[in-house]
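Appendix B.2, paired examples.
Example (i):
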Amino acid sequence: MKYIYLYLLTFIIFLAIDFVWLNFIAKNMYSQKIGHLLAENPNLIPALIFYLIFIVGVIVFAVLPGYSNESITKAILLGALFGLLTYSTYDLTNLATLRNWPISVTIIDIIWGTSISTVTSVAGYYIASWLKI
């Protein structure tokens, strides 16, 4: 049951941070740079599936290894690496395959993915500590 709580709390934190990013911080940048590609109404089901899968990755590849080694540093480094790898996959694929995909979006998005994954991993580490997993 503790793992379910860890997952849910980590999921909520990630979702809240990304909501702020997408709706308040980066919204204008995305509209200006890739507005021609954006749907009028986003399809929330694939977005939800991404979030559900991504949090599994953060927990399995960063939070639990860091926690089991009692090393917040390990959680930070693995969380950053996980974010870098996953967001780079998306953004570099877009840069390679989509016409007029801006390199600035790729760079900003990779930095964002690395950052949010790192912060989420730290939060997950402290949640795991609090739950005494």
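Example (ii):
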Amino acid sequence: MYAGPMAKALRKAYPRRRSFKVLEDNDPSGFKTKKATVSKKRAKISSFNLPKRSPQLNVLDYAVWSEISSRMRAQERRWPVNKKETREKYLARLRRTAFRLPPKFINSSIKNMKERCQRLHKAKGGHIEEGGGKKNRKRS
């Protein structure tokens, strides 16, 4: 992955760069293996690793699943009390709900990751405050 598709995509997106830094989670079975480490070094890719148990930096955790859950619960509140749902129907409804999330919501959630990563970098990998809105930032 590192020497092939990722390196190719990074070089295409940033043709003038000689090296790249990517954000990676803390899964030792993936990017921390010897093979991955060697491939990244050859492709001049270094990683900015997420601290353990850092869901605040995974767009699925801090935004998408929360929104899907809210929408699913809102649908269920409109149901009759005795309504039952099979596993297959639940999965189909979950899929529909996820695919109906507005592109604007998805894009703004992804865009928010840049600011979250900057805050993490500033904290030198330590814990960061959730939220991160302007009201939570110190004024200069």
